[in-house]
UniProtKB/TrEMBL annotation:
This is Ig-like domain-containing protein. Residues 16-123, 137-221 form the Ig-like domain. The chain crosses the membrane at residues 239-260. Residues 1-21 form the signal peptide. Pfam families: Ig_2. The lineage of its organism: Eukaryota, Metazoa, Chordata, Craniata, Vertebrata.
Amino acid sequence: MDLFYSTCLLVCICFPAIANAKLQVTIKEPSGPIVEGSDVILQCLDEGQDMSHVRFQMYHKWLRSWFNIDTTTSFRCWYYSFNVSRDNGELLLRVKQMYKWHAGPYRCVSNGTDGQLISKNITVPLQYLNGISISEPGSVFSRYMRDPRVVRVMRGKDVEVKCCASSSEPPMYQWKRKGNEWIYPNSNLKIVKITPEQGGIYTCTATHPSLPSLTQSKSVLIEVVEEPLSSLQLSDMNLILAIAIPAGVLFLVIIGIIAYKCKAKRNEKGMMLLDNQVSKTPIWKGSDSSIPYCVTDSVPLVM
């Protein structure tokens, strides 16, 4: 009995693994590195079996669930660039201009006579480099300032700017100064005790390590001044925050006052209705008419 139970348990555990191995998702095109924004074709393979019962599925990270990819999917408005075809017995998924939110994971699911079979998940390895920015250490909002960037520093002081980019692999950085062959291979540019001669336009270039054709650059003007900068001088972002935060607080206060007055008015109206009901008594039982209870007639109208 124990041997039979052990055998059944082994078959139940091993069978899904063998069945799942039949289905697989492969990248048909392109054959080389896949750059973000490229067209991609995925193919579902099932060892020459009938593909009519097989569907592509993609995991939705926001909903935390899998959904079928087809022309009638309810997510068609979000994934309009998907196209599923079943030409010549092949099940293909064409994704036009694939970006990070299209990268997967994907899988194939079969609901044939053998039950439900599920392939292994696959995520398309996209290569990308974008979102380069220049910021000043210690300044939270400096990277969101509009271009061209200008950094003013007093003569003899230290200045430091940082270059950062979003990439599928850690990018390589280098700084160049306009009109000079000087190159500094680092993401951080720090100049100690700066002089007016060291001011100028500095350009940061980020390069993808595996695909040198993926590069992005951004420049910053370092301006050396002779007089101390005013402590009251506000950057564009700080100025926006200085206006937006008080305006937001004032708006919330106004909304709170309006809500309080509306609630007080509703309570006052409810109290008036209650007073009217208490201050009146019916002429006789079941009558819709009433008279104020303060009438001094002690003789009832109806006995």
